[in-house]
Design brief:
Length: 510
């Protein structure tokens, strides 16, 4: 496979031009597919059932082994779905293996205090609900390890009970964990519920009990689930992603990768980048930007969009950021959230710095979240510390907070593997791309010494070698209700890093 700037530009152009098509494309989700099988199965559920069984791991559980806390929700959902959808020797063995896995690994949820900030989305609502449903069909599970999670879930349920239900808001994304009535107010313009196949399937089951067959809203929800299934590329009805649609999320984060590597204005990409920037500029709402036009705006996507648009010469309203700032310096993603995100705050810092505003308070907040090794190890939206560390470093570059960044550079250099890659468990293309993005930005901080150049040279060799290999499995590192991969977005992160290294080849050799 060629490793030339022209080849990478061609590959990037194809992905950038397609951003937002089909509502975004993602890996299929075990949890959401299981919930669709339980609540709104396709006419022939067998292909989805067979797919679900193929996803079971050798240890009996489902879900990515990279994040132990992200395995209990998909495992229990799969157990309940298979128990209700199939009765074969194979499915019975799968169910038994899943139950045993759940029991054997329940201890990872036994926290002395409140759950950590990086638990999967809405797990405090979803997991207790699944455990109640398991108990109702005679499945005995340990409850003591989940006391802290259940307490957090009770607090969340109390907040939701006091809220007016509005379509496209964060609580509606987990409607399947608390909704008891087919409230028409939770349907949005996508014809689904909360950008969530699981929430939509649950609403559809409730509504089918009261509405006549063929009702407009039933047909619309069924259409939503078909569109979600198509976004996985599996061709299997009922096999759906964990969140969809993600049009603006896919657009904004892909452009952020180009922005981070200085490629947003590259002449070879300008003809496909400019239409995407124009689309984002026109998509702004009074509260900013959300993952799609149907979902509530959030502080993370709003910050990144404003930063990129301002830097690209567009007139933006920096006042949109005020609603997402807290007094301590933290930026929130959604209102009423209980776990902070260092990357959301980092993107807020980036936007404020580009807008010329003081960010000293926010920089102090980020510095306090840094580990003793100089790295930022935890974030609620991503499983890899390389993502959180890189995003904070890039933001701090904009803030000119060199002394806060310096220990992170040392930490990244220490963490590089002997063969040149970076990764949590083993080197991965995506995580290495995050490190490359961060280290290349050190030019602006006076930290681009020989050690950094040598690390980037090793990374370039390692990443080039990976192109010749077929990945054993997709790198699912983004955290939703379970880990997932937004394909185009991740490819842009990877290819932008590789293109940047190719363009840097001569300067790195100096």
């Amino acid at each position: 496979m060629p490793s030339t700037p022209e080849w990478f530009i061609a590959q990037l152009k194809a992905d950038i031009q397609a951003l937002g098509a089909q509502g975004g494309i993602l890996t299929p989700s075990v949890y959401d597919t299981a919930q669709v099988l339980r609540d709104a199965p396709p006419e022939d559920p067998r292909p989805a059932v067979e797919w679900l069984m193929r996803q079971q791991r050798p240890d009996g559980g489902w879900g990515s082994e990279l994040m132990p806390l992200a395995r209990h929700v998909p495992t229990l959902a799969a157990v309940l779905a298979l128990r209700g959808s199939s009765d074969t020797p194979e499915s019975r063995r799968a169910v038994e293996g899943g139950i045993e896995f759940f029991r054997r690994n329940a201890g990872v949820w036994a926290f002395e205090g409140p759950p950590p900030d990086d638990i999967p989305v809405a797990s405090e609502l979803i997991l207790p609900r699944l455990m109640e449903e398991a108990a109702s069909v005679g499945i005995e599970l340990p409850h003591k390890p989940f006391q802290s999670l259940s307490a957090l879930g009770n607090r969340r349920r109390g907040l939701i009970a006091r809220m007016k239900h509005r379509a496209g808001t964060a609580p509606i994304h987990s409607f399947e964990a608390w909704g008891t009535e087919p409230d028409m107010n939770v349907l949005d313009g996508s014809k689904g519920v909360g950008n969530s196949p699981a929430a939509t399937a649950h609403w559809l089951r409730l509504r089918r009990a009261t509405a006549p067959a063929g009702s407009k809203e039933l047909l619309g929800a069924e259409e939503f689930l078909r569109g979600a299934a198509e976004a996985t590329g599996t061709g299997l009805p009922g096999v759906v992603p964990t969140v969809w649609p993600i049009v603006h999320y896919e657009q904004s984060w892909s452009l952020l990768a180009l922005f981070s590597t200085g490629l947003l204005e590259h002449p070879g990409l300008r003809d496909v980048v400019r239409p995407q920037l124009e689309a984002l500029y026109r998509a702004v709402r009074p509260e900013g930007y959300g993952m799609s036009e149907f979902f509530v705006c959030d502080g993370d996507i709003t910050s990144t969009c404003l930063a990129m648009l301002k830097e690209s010469g567009y007139a933006v309203d920096g006042g949109l950021l005020q609603r997402y700032q807290l007094a301590d310096g933290q930026f929130i993603t959604y209102a009423h959230e209980m776990q902070p995100s260092v990357t959301t705050t980092a993107h807020g810092v980036m936007a404020l710095a580009i807008l010329g505003q003081d960010v000293s308070r926010q920089v102090r907040w980020l510095a306090e979240k840094r580990g003793s090794d100089g790295l930022w190890r935890m974030d609620k939206w991503h499983a890899s510390w390389l993502y959180s560390t890189s995003q904070v470093m890039l933001a701090l570059c904009r803030a000119r907070a060199t002394e806060v960044i310096r220990p992170a550079v040392d930490g990244l250099l220490r963490a590089q593997s002997a063969d040149g890659g970076w990764g949590m468990a083993q080197p991965s293309l995506l995580e290495t791309a995050y490190a490359v993005h961060a280290l290349r930005a050190m030019r602006s901080q006076g930290l681009f010494g020989p050690e950094v150049k040598q690390a980037l040279q090793r990374a370039a060799r390692w990443m080039g070698a990976q192109q010749e290999k077929a990945p054993e499995q997709h790198e699912m590192l983004w955290t939703g209700k379970e880990l997932y991969r937004p394909f185009r977005l991740d490819r842009v992160f990877e290819r932008s890093a590789m293109l940047a290294l190719e363009l840097d080849r001569d300067s790195l050799a100096e």
